[in-house]
Design brief:
Blueprint lengths: L1 H13 L2 H19 L5 H8 L8 H26 L8 H12 L3 H34 L4 H18 L4 H15 L2 E3 L4 E3 L13 H19 L20 H21 L8 H16 L12 H24 L5 H12 L8 H4 L1 H22 L3 H4 L7 H20 L2 H19 L5 H23 L11 H29 L1
Antiparallel strand pairs: 1-2
Helix pairs in contact: 1-15, 2-3, 2-4, 2-15, 3-4, 3-9, 3-13, 4-5, 4-6, 4-12, 4-13, 4-15, 5-6, 5-12, 6-10, 6-12, 6-15, 7-8, 7-19, 7-20, 8-19, 9-17, 9-18, 10-11, 10-12, 11-12, 13-19, 17-18
């Protein structure tokens, strides 16, 4: 029961006026950005990352925790009211949620989404509190070969899952690894890919890369579509922002089933919550078909409840994988890892020992953030929807200005602004040709770890390659990777067959 004592200490750190304010600000900003289509929690964290140098680690990380979950809460609002999900993780819940809105049940759909997100996130966070320290102890058995296997697992799994084309996913992975290799090679002192520019000898800052690819690339993408008519309209919300007893009884099993789908996917590098949300949606649809009065296609409340719980459960256990293993399983988690590294902390097996006070304060802040987000979203979701009326020209111009100010404030270098704009154009091209962003960010974050672990393992074994598969952990990871890739290939083949027929 030592976890409960540690968690109580974390609550003691969090429940101060200043830290509660940072949690509230994070929830507020995360929800506001999540509501806006095309943005999301990853962009919110990326934009705010350079602005937190003046904060102490606890304040910065608990604010990011609020943003992390706040973005997921906000993503569904635009999907339900406008049929334009703020992020891909909210696509599944938008199917039935928007139909509920068109039938005059928008307020109930938003309430279902808010309670589902609260349920999934809260259950996942409880499991993280009890099992993350044990997972961290298990991870102390990891050596260079195991860390290299873990990085390869993340690289291939995310590249194969997040894109319809494995070639595009691997291309994104290659881009990320190339960016990670820019600068001085630490073991040899050799300059790599600096093109004679001294400013590149220290490498490209992760802040510059994330802001450029996520924020600047999205701004350029939206600017390229100016003038196209958008026929989607905001559905007004009316009625009670809570659920009746009958609706609550309908949604409760779906919330629990969705949570069960989402929990394991937070630990698997699958690029985010897209897979579990669609699995939860498909399960609720199959169950509904057996009922006497099927509701899917008419606005089924279960079609909102299941995916919302799954998405937030995935986010919760993804935080556990990040803290205990140092493994980012999504783009947002990768940026959170960069936030830890910004303060000289490396998530992984030793984090609970070296920075236990900060870790338990962060975990306590997740519980507080869930409650704050439920308060912000259950009655006030229609007010958040007003952000959807902000003209895109003003909104994205402001994002670009904020991105430039953030990068310059963080590094004080005009050269970094030039690199940011260049990478922003790369991000625009990737969106134009449907190349996923997540593998780039994962490769940039884990690339140095993979390179260092590979060199260390080979040096310690006299360049014997068999050391890479010499333990049960490495063999297990590679078998799990092969099974995951095989399942992904089978699933995509089945989808193509259904399309053909």
């Amino acid at each position: 029961m030592g976890q409960l004592a540690d968690l109580a200490g974390g609550f003691g750190e969090i429940l101060t006026p200043v830290n509660l304010l940072w949690v509230f600000i994070g929830c507020l900003l995360g929800t506001a950005v999540g509501v806006l289509p095309g943005l999301g929690s990853a962009m919110a964290v990326a934009l705010l990352l350079p602005m937190t140098f003046v904060l102490d680690p606890v304040a910065a990380l608990i604010m990011f925790a609020g943003i992390y979950f706040g973005g997921l809460f906000g993503d569904s609002i635009s999907g339900i009211l406008m049929n334009t999900p703020g992020n891909s993780t909210a696509i599944a819940s938008a199917f039935e949620g928007h139909r509920m809105a068109l039938n005059g049940r928008a307020a109930q759909a938003l309430a279902t989404a808010a309670i589902g997100a609260f349920t999934g996130g809260m259950i996942a966070t409880v499991l993280v509190v009890f099992f993350a320290p044990s997972l961290a102890q298990l991870a102390t058995r990891f050596g260079p070969a195991e860390y290299f296997a873990l990085a390869v697992f993340a690289f291939v799994a995310i590249s194969s899952v997040v894109s319809d084309s494995a070639i595009r996913g691997l291309a994104a992975l290659g881009i990320g690894l190339a960016l990670a290799m820019v600068g001085i090679d630490q073991p040899t002192g050799t300059a790599r890919f600096d093109f004679g520019e001294r400013s590149l000898l220290d490498g490209i800052s992760i802040i510059v890369i994330t802001v450029a690819l996520l924020a600047v690339g999205e701004v350029f993408h939206v600017a390229s579509r100016v003038g196209r008519r958008d026929e989607r309209k905001l559905v007004p919300t009316k009625g009670r922002p809570w659920l009746s007893g009958r609706e609550f009884r309908q949604a409760t099993p779906a919330w629990l089933r969705g949570t069960a789908f989402g929990l394991p996917f937070g630990v698997i590098p699958a690029g985010g919550a897209e897979v579990p949300t669609f699995l939860a949606y498909g399960t609720e649809r199959r169950i509904d078909r057996r009922s006497a009065d099927p509701q899917f296609g008419k606005g089924a409340i279960q079609g909102v409840a299941g995916p919302e719980a799954a998405g937030n459960a995935t986010a919760g256990t993804a935080m556990g994988a990040l803290l205990a293993l140092g493994l980012p399983t999504s783009a947002t988690a990768a940026i959170m890892l960069a936030a830890f590294q910004q303060y000289g902390m490396q998530p992984g097996p030793l984090l609970f020992e070296r920075s236990g006070d900060i870790v338990w304060a962060l975990l306590a802040s997740l519980f507080v953030a869930m409650v704050v987000l439920l308060i912000l979203n259950l009655p006030f979701a229609p007010l958040w929807a007003m952000l959807l009326k902000v003209p895109k020209s003003y909104l994205y111009a402001g994002i670009l200005v904020f991105a430039c100010l953030g990068v310059y404030a963080g590094t004080g270098s005009t050269f970094d602004l030039t690199v940011m704009l260049a990478l922003g154009l790369l991000g625009f091209a990737m969106r134009r040709y449907d190349v996923p962003i997540a593998p780039v960010l994962i490769a940039v974050i884990l690339g140095p770890l993979a390179e260092y672990s590979l060199r260390d393992a080979m040096a310690n074994s006299g360049n014997d390659a068999s050391v890479l598969v010499s333990s049960g952990i490495t063999i297990g990871l590679y078998i799990l990777l092969a099974a995951g890739v095989g399942w992904t290939i089978w699933r995509k083949v089945q989808e193509r067959r259904r399309v053909d027929f």
